[in-house]
């Protein structure tokens, strides 16, 4: 029996997964033209896992979201989790990726992902998790400012992440009312 509501191969699904595959192929193409891009096999495996989780999370959002708002909130949560982990592991949000303060960003996102899975993306729980992540962005920036002299804190980046996490919290709040 096939699901006629969400056909397995539709244009959006093909475009989404195709875009993720293109992102994964981009460093391989860049490596042909410059030495600046120098990925190992492990880098490609890690990127494939993260991109696969991003695609799977968006798929999950539209399958389990009880309303359009909840689906959008879950998709935004997935995208922000991906962007936080990707940027933090690639170059570090503050300083190098190995700086201890960057572990705070990673641990917070992993904690929110665990909460999401344990509580099955319940909007009330997710609202709290996203709000906590929004508040944590500037707090970790302040920790870095005081404990990492000489490192510049990108307040604009932290502000954008905080605002996006707050928007996700707002979407989950509105989904609670649905």
UniProtKB/TrEMBL annotation:
Know the name of this protein? HdeD family acid-resistance protein
Task: Tell whether Transmembrane is among the UniProt keywords.
Answer: yes
Q: What is the lineage of its organism?
A: Bacteria, Pseudomonadati, Pseudomonadota, Alphaproteobacteria, Sphingomonadales
Q: Which UniProt keywords apply?
A: Membrane, Transmembrane, Transmembrane helix
Q: Does the keyword Lipid metabolism apply?
A: no
Q: Which residues cross the membrane?
A: 12-32, 44-62, 74-95, 101-119, 131-149, 155-172
